Amino acid sequence: MNSMQTTTVVSDRLARNVQRNIRERAIETILFGAALVSVLTTVGIVWVLVSESLNFFDHVPFGDFLTDTMWTPLFSEPHYGILPLLMGTITTSLVALVVAIPLGTVIAAYLSEFASARVREIVKPFLELLGGIPTIVYGYFALTVVTPLLQAIYPDLPGFSMLSAGLVMGIAIVPYISSLTEDAMRAVPMSLREGAYGMGSTRFQTAIRVVIPAALSGVLSAYILGISRAVGETMIVAVAAGMQPNFTMDPTEPAQTISAYIVQVALGDLPHGSIGYQSIFAAGLSLMLMTLLFNILGHVIRRRYREAY
Amino acid sequence: MKANELDQIRSVIKTNKRADLIFALAGFLALMVGVMAFITLFGEMVANGWERINPDFFTSFPSRRAANAGILSAWVGSLLVMLVTALSAIPLGIAAGVYLEEYAPKNWMTDLIEINVTNLAGVPSIVYGLLALGVFVYTFGFGQSILTAGLTLGLLILPVVIVSTREALRAIPIHIREGAYGVGATQWQVVSDHLVPYATPGIMTGVIIGMSRAIGETAPIITIGALTFIAFLPPSPVTDTVPFLNFEWLFSGFTVMPIQMFNWTSRPEEAFQQNAAAAGLILVLMTLMMNAIAIWLRYRLRKSISW
Known about the structure:
Helix content of chain A is 77%, strand content 0%. Chain A has helices spanning 2-59, 62-67, 83-114, 117-131, 135-153, 162-186, 190-198, 203-214, 216-232, 235-240, 258-267, 275-304.
């Protein structure tokens, strides 16, 4: 009698345990499903870009795509050479980096090695706010403020130019580079700085000869992530650099970037499945491969040059 | 030590200290470049657009005449798109973050998901637009609708929400978990009764930063083929008949604030540039406010935290 009771109680508890386990497993599966969405996103991106690009390359020889120096897919006599768009992208990115890398690095070194805690407390949120401004607003700024300003110095500058777009893009990337660089510098252990100070180094010498070399992997990968952001940046160049593909690397000329071309086509009314529609996916694939290359390079550098303390 | 050697040392120290000062000055100047850029950007928009900001501007549709044009369809569109974005990205992002931080076993699948989240954060936003064009618009047949735009931006900010969820969970000390397990809680009870509530301020910070990024995103929305000239409102989500909710708005055409601004910016007439300035000012104020809330939340979190 007594043992019977015990058995029922135990089996009841076991039954509840089974229920509980099933519920726990179900929840875990749902959560796993949510995590899988990010993988599905990547699969979706690759599938869309590759499948539409394959359609595109059915009509366009791959050699022409890489070597033709004209990009006029919407003309009656179309040319499909990615080079002009690629040069537009590279030129605007270079101008942006010439601005963003020195400014970003100096700001990061200043904040990490020189500034007092109070200055840092004010400046860091400010930089974050600067980084949060929508890029279309930066595009407007480039077109209405920076271009006229540059024209005052250099009167021959056209109304749309890679220089103006690149400069503003540089400003837009500064917060990004400076915050990543500063994180890398602050991760350098204090003992290294103390060693340098103990030898009689100034702050500047410590920053240049000890902290930056020790943080090199982080600093370089910050630069590379900055590059990949510049390459993918769209609205600033679409507004301020012009919409004409231009086979040149002269920053004082207008030119179209890969991303700006996608915007131009999307603004028009191209039918689904036309060659023009497919061309934006080929352009997108090129863009994606470029940023992917830089992202991988960033990972490699971070691993390779990481100093462990 | 000879006097001239001492002098030499002194001059070396002097040069080095000067270099120190010059660099500090350079750092300060570099910061000032950022500050000046921000002030001119903001000042220009205020100077150019301020007089356009009046109640009519918020309650008028875009128009071919600049003086009559307003942002009614744009801000309503932004609001509805953000609603879809929030409803998709927040639950998905938190669930994924919880899985990766609390549940995930150490295996290749977890590694794959982690690497994938990191890489997605580096994908240019316009590529998300192409994804949406190929998948949401044509494969799923959602069309160029609010639903498509909201889901696209949801995917775009998903990495931000996942990463901030993980960081917030990681900051919770292990003894909270151990205490809960010790009194017999299941893993889900630990997560839902303890970890997620304690992590909420941290998660909110990430969500707000993500949303402020989404509200300013232009390129992916243009890529899905959103029209720039919309002179109507989507059907209202709330109706006066049972069941009081209406989901037609999800499939409606739309425009959003940044697209409206882009449209006006790309017109040569001065009057439309004024409208662009006014729309830009409102957009910047919105993102600044969201960012400020996020920064304040994080600041409070850091001050009030005590486990």
